[in-house]
């Protein structure tokens, strides 16, 4: 059994989608949902779906003995970042080398890096008058949004699309494809 931790900061629509996708999977178990925010609705979603959850502040996240003890306590084999807005400490990246992936709401390398998260990304896509957007799943590295790309999915845009429209189109890709990419990656472990 592969035990997966999902790291989240917000409402957790992707978190819930991933939990539901793997609910009856014979080889994958969502073992923990971790948030850096006590008010993240993702924690409520996890509770409602019977998944253990915890809150780790920035200080706790950067405390290697504490963080690694938590990962060991839940026997975490793999980490999925699903809207997690903190930089991952290097010790955790090393410990989960090619066993930690992230979803980015744009077609990297465009619109990535520091400050490029959530609606900021979709506003930047609109300002750049892009004709398409998409989602990128990539390995986590010490460089923000700089890890090797695993998969990308595209959707067309029109000049009339607002940042909210762009966000909605990109979110459909996340819901349709993110769990499938995770499953494919896990099948090769």
Automatic annotation (TrEMBL):
It comes from the Bacteria. Residues 3-182 form the Formyl transferase N-terminal domain. Pathway: Purine metabolism; IMP biosynthesis via de novo pathway; N(2)-formyl-N(1)-(5-phospho-D-ribosyl)glycinamide from N(1)-(5-phospho-D-ribosyl)glycinamide (10-formyl THF route): step 1/1. The active site is at residue 104. Keywords: Purine biosynthesis, Transferase. The keyword Transferase applies. GO terms for biological process: 'de novo' IMP biosynthetic process. Gene3D superfamilies: Formyl transferase, N-terminal domain. Catalyzes the transfer of a formyl group from 10-formyltetrahydrofolate to 5-phospho-ribosyl-glycinamide (GAR), producing 5-phospho-ribosyl-N-formylglycinamide (FGAR) and tetrahydrofolate. This is Phosphoribosylglycinamide formyltransferase. It comes from Hoylesella enoeca. The lineage of its organism: Bacteria, Pseudomonadati, Bacteroidota, Bacteroidia, Bacteroidales.
